[in-house]
UniProtKB/TrEMBL annotation:
This is AGCS family alanine or glycine:cation symporter. It is found in: Cell membrane. GO terms for molecular function: amino acid:sodium symporter activity. It comes from Frigoriflavimonas asaccharolytica. Keywords: Cell membrane, Membrane, Symport, Transmembrane, Transmembrane helix, Transport. GO terms for cellular component: plasma membrane. PANTHER family: AGSS FAMILY TRANSPORTER, SODIUM-ALANINE, TRANSCRIPTIONAL REGULATOR, LRP FAMILY.
Length: 556
């Protein structure tokens, strides 16, 4: 272990030497920007609908999520209770051993009848429901919630928040579908290691349906794009915004500041990702509740401190969603900004979270599908909305809604201006908003931002590594090559500008939608069958307990 850490450190060490060169951050950004611009143009191509040009990927996300919501009869609402019970472990026994074995007998098994052989035959998997959810949430609840919301409001006004919420609610249904499939079609290695995600359910699921070659193409395409997404949205964007906040607190910018911060982040990330999903899960299950709790408590303090303005803030959100202010590109423009930022934040439809959820211990794929419902709800509906309210309170200036936000056409888009007339966006805006009510909270927010960024990066390193293994095999050398490349992008992201990083990150995350959503639209009937099987197992247990059987969940 120490030898691997030493190798990682030595591979990154040359950047410390280069860090003395003046303007290294700018040189890295100049080299990175053309790549970001080109890739953004390819992925976010637009189709004309009436008088609007809408990115096709946004249409695919919205229409697909709406279809799944209707087809599965609003699982984002009706299955929330089941999701909470599942993640709390109420059905652990049947998920480990099956309802038929434990409860569907004339004389259901009692506590004294559970031999070690039954324990040994339990479900495959490496992590619990809560650990899988924590890992997946750590990959989504991150700087998309802190900086991404600020970007959305900066580009689309308060109304973009409304469409982010709608996208989050619809995305719950998509997440349910893709994570159920992730568990159903996962591979289990000889040592019990789990390999799962869209590349597996696209390949194996479509092969079952007679589309073997098509499945291989989609699976391979997803894996290639997932590696790129792990370098972009799951890595470079996170290190970029962490570096911005750290350098702001330290009062040092320019030169090689970003590179130095990136190298430090890369070393800490490298130490964790060597250990694989089990270590990542152990870290995230501790970090995620802490950082989410810290951020939510701070947000609630500001919301209650501005309680009299809550109604006005929601009025701005609702009015802005349907009657956007001048210069925002109209209703469709605001909708696109909201959906695009929400998709980047919760990744529903991208399929990435299915990789983490696939590692869960269960015999019922749909059990993890319902747990995954909670992810977009926590990420977008709750945390993003809180961030939006904090930013709106910060910018409220009198009762005139038109004077609340000042916009400019500089820099090619409408951006929010601070009191001195300078454009502010991303994490800087969120930090200023928190500091306005809680003096010096930017120091605490810096800790939260670094933890958000850190947990997201280690989760996405696992996603990318799984895709890398799918493409290049499961050898140790292949693993090391990927991890070194991942750490390099930690440094690149920290050095580049937000504009360059967010273009590349958006495009990489959203590119995953194409192969994934196409596959989901073929495979969704499989999810319906799995859901019926899981609900039947739950019913079998509940009926047996009503008839006097012992609940075995605490004895296995």
């Amino acid at each position: 272990m120490r030898g691997k850490i030493t190798i990682l450190f030595l591979m990154i060490l040359p950047f410390l030497g280069f860090a003395q060169e003046k303007g290294l951050d700018e040189k890295i950004n100049d080299a990175f920007m053309p790549i970001a611009d080109t890739w953004e143009g390819i992925v976010l191509f637009k189709v004309p609908i009436g008088e609007y040009n809408i990115p096709f990927v946004v249409l695919l996300l919205v229409l697909g999520a709406t279809f799944f919501t209707l087809y599965f009869k609003f699982p984002n609402i009706t299955k929330l209770g089941t999701a909470i019970k599942t993640v709390r472990g109420k059905y652990t026994d049947i998920e480990m051993h099956g309802a038929d074995l434990l409860y569907d007998n004339e004389e259901p098994i009692g506590v004294e009848d559970i031999p070690n052989t039954i324990r040994d035959e339990s479900a495959h998997g490496e992590v619990s429901h809560f650990q899988a959810l924590a890992t997946a949430v750590s990959g989504t609840v991150g700087l998309g919630n802190i900086a991404g919301v600020a970007v959305a409001i900066g580009l689309g006004g308060p109304g973009a928040t409304f469409w982010m919420i709608i996208c989050g609610l619809l995305g719950m249904s998509t997440k349910f579908v893709e994570c159920t499939l992730g568990v159903k079609y996962r591979d289990v290695g000889p040592d019990g290691t789990i390999y799962g995600g869209p590349m597996y359910y696209l390949t194996k699921g479509l092969k079952e349906m007679g589309f073997k070659n098509f499945g291989k193409i989609l699976g391979g395409l997803f894996a290639i794009l997932c590696v790129g997404a792990s370098f972009g949205g799951g890595n470079a964007f996170q290190s970029n915004q962490a570096a911005v906040q750290i350098s702001s607190i330290l009062g040092v910018k320019g030169g090689a500041t970003g590179v130095i911060i990136g190298v430090v982040l890369a070393i800490f990330v490298g130490i964790v990702i060597i250990g694989g999903i089990k270590r990542i899960a152990k870290i995230t299950e501790k970090i995620v509740p802490f950082m989410a709790g810290l951020y939510i408590v701070a947000s609630l303090i500001i919301i209650f401190a501005n309680f009299s303005d809550v109604g006005f803030a929601f009025q701005l959100i609702f009015d802005g969603a349907f009657t956007p202010m001048a210069g925002l590109g109209g209703l469709v423009g605001v909708l696109i900004v909201g959906f695009q930022r929400a998709a980047f934040s919760n990744e529903a439809g991208a399929g990435s979270a299915a990789i983490a959820h696939s590692a869960v211990r269960t015999k019922y794929p749909a059990s993890e599908g319902v747990v995954a419902l909670l992810e977009p709800f926590i990420d977008t509906v709750v945390i993003c909305t809180m961030t939006a309210l904090v930013i709106i309170f910060f910018n409220i200036n009198g009762s005139d809604a038109q004077s609340v936000f000042n916009y400019t056409a500089e820099h090619g888009s409408s951006v929010l201006l601070n009191a001195t007339g300078q454009p502010i966006n991303g994490v800087d805006l969120t930090s200023m908003a928190f500091n306005d009510t809680i003096p010096h909270f930017s120091y605490v927010l810096t800790v939260a931002i670094v933890l958000f960024a850190f947990s997201t990066m280690i989760s996405w390193s696992y996603y990318g590594l799984q895709a890398w293994k799918y493409l290049f095999g499961k050898g140790k050398l292949a693993d090391l090559v990927y991890k070194l490349m991942f750490l390099l992008f930690v440094v690149i992201g920290a050095a580049a500008t937000l504009d360059a990083v967010i273009k590349f990150s958006d495009a990489m995350i959203l590119a995953l939608v194409f192969p994934n959503m196409i596959g989901l639209l073929f495979l969704f009937p499989k999810v319906r069958a799995e859901m019926k099987r899981y609900l039947s197992a739950i019913n079998t247990k509940e009926v047996a307990i009503e008839e006097g059987a012992v609940d075995l969940k605490d004895h296995l």
